[in-house]
Automatic annotation (TrEMBL):
NCBIfam families given in the database record: ATPase-Plipid (TIGR01652), ATPase_P-type (TIGR01494)
Start and end residues of each P-type ATPase A domain: 133-192
A Pfam entry, by short name: Cation_ATPase
GO cellular component: early endosome; endoplasmic reticulum; Golgi apparatus; plasma membrane; recycling endosome membrane
Alphabetic keyword roster: ATP-binding, Endoplasmic reticulum, Endosome, Golgi apparatus, Lipid transport, Magnesium, Membrane, Metal-binding, Nucleotide-binding, Translocase, Transmembrane, Transmembrane helix, Transport
EC numbers: 7.6.2.1
Protein name as catalogued: Phospholipid-transporting ATPase
Active site: D416 (4-aspartylphosphate intermediate)
Membrane topology: Multi-pass membrane protein
Cofactor(s) needed: Mg(2+)
Domain P-type ATPase N-terminal: 45-99
Gene: ATP11B
Its job: Catalytic component of a P4-ATPase flippase complex which catalyzes the hydrolysis of ATP coupled to the transport of aminophospholipids, phosphatidylserines (PS) and phosphatidylethanolamines (PE), from the outer to the inner leaflet of intracellular membranes. May contribute to the maintenance of membrane lipid asymmetry in endosome compartment.
Subunit structure, interactors included: Component of a P4-ATPase flippase complex which consists of a catalytic alpha subunit ATP11B and an accessory beta subunit TMEM30A.
């Protein structure tokens, strides 16, 4: 038995060392400080990742195979690869170069782009991995590279340096072992956060002390959650083992930066790709736009057309060859092998040959052109000065360019309220204490019904407290001053200059060289408010919190912090008062506090909270609980037991919090104002006129949310507000939904208000009924929403039968789930961190920018990409259909109509640039018109420009033009081919070149007819493409190329252009193709104009009227000298004004 066990452990060790077994075979990892492992032969060290960060996809060795594999997973690339291989294997009418060269071009361009991007990632990785760091090894401080850090190393980090790995804080230069950090690079939060070391290690502030430290850390295996860490440290001190819990407050995350602390020592627990920052490098779920889905559908249809043409040609060939004279004519006798070959194999070979001949109907360059258009077009959002917020110096940013056109298809907007519609700048306004309402006036709390009629400064702030007992003052006002996680930053230089006291008083409390930092704007506003009225929070040193009331200092010992979480919707602190008593202060939403209160003015406070909410104020309820010595011992034991647990720590903490936060004494409530952002009402109204429905999803109570909805224009006063609130059962919820759905007054606009609890019931079994009610409402407001409920609401609309395009916009971490769930996610660069921005597709600084982003940029992107896709299929139909028609005149012999060089360069050179430039700059109407007339957005909704009807029009148009190309040329040359002055006849290649020439000119001019916004670049590529074709053909046909097997095109183009009849044919055929299209546009524009065309006509009329004035203004602008301070914006101002006026001229 022992031998078997030894053999098994030896085999396990071998497998681990060879890398066959994963390094994490348990739920926890054990890390020995300074890597001092147990001195026994049975211990097998756990294997951990090194500290290298790898964000690149490729290496030098796997780039080619891996990149090729990824590219050929795309259907179009794989299809052309098959065609190329077929051309190599069998005798086909066209050279393998015709398929191979375009494929090579597309693959090469994409590979270069991806290779360059990966090279940049490698470069960034090398900078990070090669950064110098200091670690404690062998009793001394050693400098090494970041990539050489191992799990268990003690790392020293100095002030303003970033942490090179996830470290458990061991000690700092502060006596209490704390340090301050910022996590701006992780979640965007710029406030200072305090992290703590355990008391047993905080005293180890030298290398020798750390080298002598005997400790073991047990913690969970790596996970991506930045705010979750479960572990414990066992310190051996004088032979006694002391166990301390470790949580997020003890962990210093890689990428965070050390602030206001000279240096710290930390233990590396997660390194390299196992650090939390690296684990958050996960790829977001791939979102596909409606245009991309339509493009794939069109591709399948064209693939069916291709197969049909190939099958039809193969069948007609054999039908034609049923006659002996056509099967084996005297000039083309079969060999013995051809006569004895299998009919089935010959049929398959002919089918494949026709497939190769017609394969260009599938546009291989479409994908690379679309990628280039999306990538280049995305820069316009960042360059738009109208989306630049000068106060915060933030411009719009694009995190993904794959969804540009989706901005023009949005039907539902889901928005957060706080920080998105509002400024998230909190200002304390009112409070309720002991059933009495107070408001702040000039730094004083004035009871309701009284006015501040005393001179400034004649009476002390907070004078009303003189009428209260010391105990009441302490528990009612001090609760707000102490129940928080606010940090203080002192201006040390100012303090020293005035004499050393870091808290200077003027008039008691009017000025101080300190600044509060808080992760929540509410907490900061409340602490600042208590300071203004006389109770100032002045110090937080580890386990001590100090407040000053009119210069009198009081210190409280911080025993425990019960952190806020979205489920409890409250946070608490347990303090030891100066008299030695133990008290719990808690604050949170009224729904999270009032049910647990047993004493105090509950009903009066509830009424005051509702009144605050009706004024649009954000409300918090404050309560307390006093512990007897026996109760506190029990509470302390439960908290320590839960916090030292390695398994199910969160569940056990929730149980402990629920046990503690009960039997509360209600103290009062606070009301904080959050102002609306600029132009929110105008933006929501513009979205409504554009046919976009706006839903507000917020965690606020419904009175506050309704008030804000009314003030921002989301709800109108004339709307009938329907309510689905406080439903407690499925039956009750169903009855209410049925009542709401039976309303027949469709003339009146309805608005729906639903809370989180009722929404859960509605989504459980009554989704269809709930959706029916929502669709009959002009606006929907969901309040008291949890983050996951927001995502569920978005998913509900997104997966409804109509499949509407959804957009979610928010600024906080609680909005990430709905931002990722929606078709388009937009992050607001607000004051609740950058998690929403990091997880969004687009980011803007203010809600008002959403109007231009959708109504202008979305409109432009959609019409550009829609026309690009349709035009690509159109020009390829024009290209390959004459090839198919030509087979009827050559006995389906698979003779090609065009030269191989023309086949290769048609999509790459002759017709590629005009459509690319069009797709970057086209504007149907001026941006100002689109913003002033939001209804124009409706013209492109529901993917109208890529509907099956529009697709059918472009396809039929392509076939019609192809018939005109072919038969127009055939009629000219069919009976009499002696078109030269000397009687010389035209041949096969001349006929094909004539068709090709007409085609290049026609498809280019067709795009010119579709262009409304002409720039110099449009003119250059449009006329330049036609000129390039002529110059290239003259050059190609004027030289005998030694590397070509045949010289079929020698002098053909020169001969064609020397014929007046050919020039006449080109002009007649081009006019014949384009004249009906011009006539259709004119008739539709005047008889059945769309709203967009009407706006174009109005815009053109205004241009004609103001042209002389504009010209003079432009001349005047050229003489204006823009000051240097204005030109600092990158010369934007001068150029922007001139460009705006000149666009009017054009």
């Amino acid at each position: 038995m022992n031998r078997s066990t030894k053999r098994c452990s030896r085999w396990t060790l071998v497998r681990c060392r060879l890398g066959f077994d994963p390094p994490h075979q348990s739920d926890t990892r054990t890390v020995y400080v300074a890597n001092r492992f147990p001195q026994n032969g049975h211990y097998i060290p756990q294997r951990f990742a090194d500290n290298r960060i790898i964000s690149s996809k490729y290496t030098v060795w796997n780039f080619v195979p891996k990149n090729l594999f990824e590219q050929f997973r795309r259907i179009a690339n794989f299809y052309f690869l098959i065609i190329f291989l077929v051309q190599l294997m069998i005798d086909t009418p066209t050279s393998p170069v015709t398929s191979g060269l375009p494929l090579f071009f597309v693959i090469t361009v994409t590979a270069i782009k991806q290779g360059y991007e990966d090279w940049l990632r490698h470069k960034a990785d090398n900078e990070v991995n090669g950064a110098p760091v200091f670690v404690v090894r062998s009793g001394s401080l050693v400098q090494t590279r970041s990539k050489n850090i191992r799990v268990g190393d003690i790392v020293r980090v100095a002030k303003d340096e970033t942490f090179p790995a996830d470290l458990v804080l061991l000690s700092s230069d502060r006596p209490d072992g704390t340090c301050h950090i910022t996590t701006a690079s992780l979640d965007g939060e710029t406030n200072l956060k305090t992290h703590y070391s355990v008391p047993e290690t905080s005293v180890c502030q030298s290398v020798s002390q750390l080298e002598a430290l005997q400790a073991v850390v047990e913690c969970q295996q790596p996970e991506a959650d930045l705010y979750r860490f479960v572990g414990r440290m066992t310190v051996t001190h004088h032979g006694e083992e002391i166990v301390r819990p470790l949580g997020p407050e003890n962990l210093l995350l890689r990428g965070a930066r050390l602030k206001n602390t000279k240096e710290i020592f930390g233990l590396a627990v997660y390194t390299g790709m196992e650090s939390k920052m690296a684990l958050n490098y996960k790829c977001k779920s791939q979102k596909r736009s409606a245009v991309e889905k339509s493009m794939n559908t069109f591709l399948i249809i064209y693939l069916i057309i291709l197969l049909s043409e190939a099958i039809l040609s193969t069948i007609l060939k054999y039908a034609w060859q049923a006659e002996t004279k056509w099967d084996e004519p005297f000039y083309n006798q079969k060999t013995e092998a051809e006569r004895n070959s299998s009919p089935i194999l010959k049929f398959i070979s002919d089918f494949l040959a026709f497939l190769v001949l017609y394969n260009f109907i599938i546009p291989i360059s479409l994908y690379v052109t679309v990628e280039m258009q999306k990538f280049l077009g995305s820069f316009f959002i960042g360059w738009d000065l109208d989306l630049y917020h000068e106060e915060s110096d933030q411009k719009a940013q694009v995190n993904t360019s794959d969804l540009n056109e989706e901005l023009g298809q949005v039907e539902y907007v889901f928005t957060d309220k706080t920080g998105t519609l509002t400024e998230n700048e909190m200002q304390f306004r009112e409070c309720s204490i002991n059933g009495t309402k107070y408001r702040e006036v000039n730094g004083k709390l004035i009871p309701e019904g009284m006015t501040d009629d005393s001179p400034d400064g004649s009476m002390p702030p907070l004078n009303f407290l003189n009428n209260l007992s010391f105990r009441e003052r302490k528990i009612k006002i001090y609760a707000v001053s102490l129940c928080h996680t606010v940090q203080i930053s002192y201006d040390q230089s100012d303090c020293l200059a005035v004499g050393g006291d870091p808290f200077s008083h003027a008039n008691g409390f009017s000025s101080s060289p300190m600044e509060y930092y808080a992760s929540s704007p509410d907490e900061k506003a409340l602490v600042e408010a208590t300071k203004r009225i006389g109770v100032a929070f002045t110090c937080s040193n580890g386990d001590t919190m100090e407040i000053k009331t009119f210069g009198k200092s009081e210190k409280y010992k911080l025993l425990h912090v019960l952190e806020f979480d979205p489920n409890r919707r409250r946070m608490s602190v347990i303090l030891q008062t100066p008299s030695g008593g133990k008290v719990l202060f808690t604050k949170g939403a009224e729904s999270a506090i009032l049910p647990f209160t047993t004493s105090g003015e509950i009903e009066k406070t509830r009424l005051h909270v509702d009144e605050f909410a009706l004024k649009g104020l954000r409300t918090l309820v404050v309560a307390c609980r006093h512990f007897s010595p026996e109760e506190y011992i029990d509470v302390d034991k439960k908290l320590n037991s839960a916090r030292t647990a390695l398994q199910q720590r969160e569940e056990r903490l929730q149980e402990a919090f629920s046990y503690i936060e009960k039997d509360l004494q209600l103290l009062g409530a606070t009301g904080v104002e959050d102002k609306l952002q600029d132009k929110v009402q105008e933006t929501i109204e513009a979205l409504r006129l554009a046919g976009i429905k706006v839903w507000v999803l917020t965690g606020d109570k419904h009175e506050t949310a309704v008030t804000v909805s009314l003030s921002c224009g989301h709800f109108h006063r004339t709307m009938n507000i329907l309510e689905l609130l406080q439903q407690h059962s499925d039956n009750e919820c169903a009855e209410q939904l049925l009542t709401l759905s039976r309303r027949d007054d469709h003339v009146i606009q309805h608005a729906l208000v639903v809370d989180g609890a009722s929404l859960s019931l509605a989504l459980r079994e009554h989704e269809k009924l709930f959706m029916e009610v929502c669709k009959n409402c002009s606006a929907v407001l969901c309040c008291r929403m949890a983050p996951l409920q927001k995502a569920k609401v978005v998913r509900l609309l997104k997966t409804s039968p109509e499949k509407p395009i959804t957009l979610a916009i928010g600024d906080g971490a609680n909005d990430v789930s709905m931002i990722q769930e929606a078709h388009v996610g937009i992050g607001i660069m607000g004051k609740e961190g950058r998690q929403a921005v990091r997880n969004s597709d687009y980011a803007i600084a203010r809600f008002k920018f959403l109007a231009k982003l959708l109504l202008v940029h979305g409109h432009f992107y959609y019409i550009r990409i829609a026309t690009l896709v349709q035009y690509f299929f159109y020009k390829n139909v024009c290209f390959i259909t004459p090839q198919f028609l030509y087979q009827f005149f050559c006995l389906f012999s698979q003779q090609t109509l065009y030269d191989s060089v023309y086949l290769t360069l048609y999509n790459i050179c002759f017709t590629s640039l005009p459509i690319l430039v069009y797709s970057l700059f086209e504007q149907l109407v001026h941006p100002h018109v689109l913003q002033n007339k939001p209804g124009l957005y409706r013209d492109i909704s529901k993917n109208s420009l890529l509907s099956f009807r529009t697709f059918l029009y472009w396809t039929v148009l392509g076939f019609c033009h192809a018939f005109v190309f072919f038969f127009g040329s055939y009629i000219l040359m069919g009976e009499d081919t002696t078109l030269m002055g000397n009687g010389q006849m035209f041949g096969n290649w001349t006929f094909g070149t004539l068709v090709f020439t007409v085609m290049v000119i026609t498809v280019t001019l067709k795009l010119a007819l579709e262009t409304h916004f002409w720039t110099w670049m449009n003119h250059f590529v449009t006329w330049g493409s036609i000129a390039f074709y002529f110059i290239f053909s003259l050059f190609y046909g004027g030289i005998i190329w030694p590397f070509l097997h045949t010289q079929d095109m020698y002098f053909v183009f020169v001969q064609l252009l020397s014929s007046g009849s050919a020039w006449f044919a080109i002009i007649i055929i081009v006019i014949t193709c384009l004249f009906p299209d011009v006539l259709k546009k004119v008739l539709y524009r005047h008889l059945q104009p769309t709203s967009t065309q009407t706006s174009q006509n109005e815009q053109n009329g205004k241009r004609a009227e103001c042209f002389p004035v504009v010209k003079r203004v432009c001349q005047a602008l050229d003489l204006i000298h823009i000051p240097t301070c204005v030109r600092k914006k990158g010369n934007y101002i001068s150029c922007y004004l001139k460009r705006a006026w000149r666009e009017e001229i054009n």
